[in-house]
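User: Second chain of the day. Same drill as before.
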Amino acid sequence: MNHVRWPNPCASKALVSIALAHGVGVVSAHRAMADCDIIARLLTRVHEMGIDLEDMIRTAMLPRARVQALVSYDDRQLAKDAGFQWDTGTRRWMADLTEPEIHALSFEVRHDP
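Assistant: Same format as last time:
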């Protein structure tokens, strides 16, 4: 749920939202078999779009580090666009990223202890 990079971006991590963002119709949801059917049709659709499913899943399973975005208030959109989420408790932009994702960022990060 958290680490798959879907080809069509979706603001929500909800299965129904991701399915709809990829043109997969949803008749029923939140029942085991219905959700399995949605996932199967979603993966089929992504494959039809030319995405290598094995690579997508392998990338999702890479080890990740919890990092804090070191951005100013004015540059907070950079963190948002990179998938960071605001942690209201610690008042920091946080994300779980792979090493290649960290190196591709246009701003500095600090590893969370």
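Residues 15-60 form one domain.

User: Great, on to the next one.
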